[in-house]
């Protein structure tokens, strides 16, 4: 399936990723619409904006900077730089508001049925993706 992700350097990409699995009591939804918020999601992208985003995050969290320095002292600079680069290469999902059609349910416990039209909310749940695994509310 396709999903919109942002890299640790602030690059937005549409990638092929495995479809999510429905959790017990949850539903699997085929997304029909998802809302892109220029304010909230723009800020999320900017916060991950590569070196500039890294400097901004460092300014906002001196304790994390101190941990990085401690790590560099204990494990070496090259090892620490490798960890920072890996973090910058990480991808995070975008989105928190979507709607679609239920395609799979936990028949034993779900009040929903396959074919129901539903609204989905929550960061990490209602992502910009073709399918959403939505937990029981």
Secondary-structure map:
Layout: E1 2-7, E2 12-16, E3 27-34, H1 38-47, H2 50-60, H3 62-75, H4 77-89, E4 91-93, E5 97-105, E6 117-121, E7 131-134
Antiparallel strand pairs: 1-2, 1-4, 3-5, 3-7, 5-6
Structure notes:
- The chain has 137 residues and is of the alpha+beta class.
- It has four helices and seven strands.
- It has one domain (2-134): Quinone Oxidoreductase, Chain A, domain 1, CATH 3.90.180.
- Strands 6-5-3-7 form a four-stranded antiparallel β-sheet, with no helix packed on it. It has a three-stranded antiparallel β-sheet with strand order 2-1-4, with no helix packed on it.
- Helix 3 (62-75) crosses helix 4 (77-89).
Tags for this model:
137 residues, alpha+beta, Quinone Oxidoreductase, Chain A, domain 1, 4-stranded antiparallel beta sheet, 3-stranded antiparallel beta sheet, 4 helices, 7 strands, elongated
Number of domains: 1
The main pleated sheet reads as:
4 strands, antiparallel
CATH architecture descriptor text:
Alpha-Beta Complex
Strand order across the biggest sheet? 6-5-3-7
Separation of termini? Answer: 25 Å
Please tally the helical runs, counting DSSP H or I stretches of 4 or more residues. Answer: 4
Kindly report the name of the CATH homologous superfamily: Medium-chain alcohol dehydrogenases, catalytic domain
CATH topology: Quinone Oxidoreductase, Chain A, domain 1
What's the average pLDDT? 84
Quaternary organization: single chain
- Quick one: how many beta strands? 7
How would you classify the helix and strand content by structural class?
A: alpha+beta
Radius of gyration: 19 Å
List segments where confidence is low: pLDDT < 50 over at least 5 consecutive residues. none
CATH class: Alpha Beta
* Proportion of residues in helical segments: 25-40%
């Amino acid at each position: 399936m396709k999903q919109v992700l942002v890299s640790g350097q602030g690059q937005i990409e549409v990638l092929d990723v495995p479809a999510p699995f429905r959790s017990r009591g949850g539903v699997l939804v085929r997304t029909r619409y998802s809302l892109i918020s220029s304010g909230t999601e723009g800020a999320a992208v900017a916060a991950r904006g590569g070196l500039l985003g890294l400097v901004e995050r460092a300014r906002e969290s001196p304790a994390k900077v101190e941990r990085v320095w401690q790590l560099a002292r204990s494990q070496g600079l090259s090892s620490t730089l490798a960890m920072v680069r890996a973090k910058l290469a990480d991808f995070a999902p975008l989105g928190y508001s979507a709607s679609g059609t239920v395609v799979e349910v936990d028949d034993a416990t779900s009040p929903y049925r396959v074919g129901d039209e539903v609204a989905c909310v929550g960061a990490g749940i209602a992502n910009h993706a073709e399918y959403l695994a939505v937990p029981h509310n």
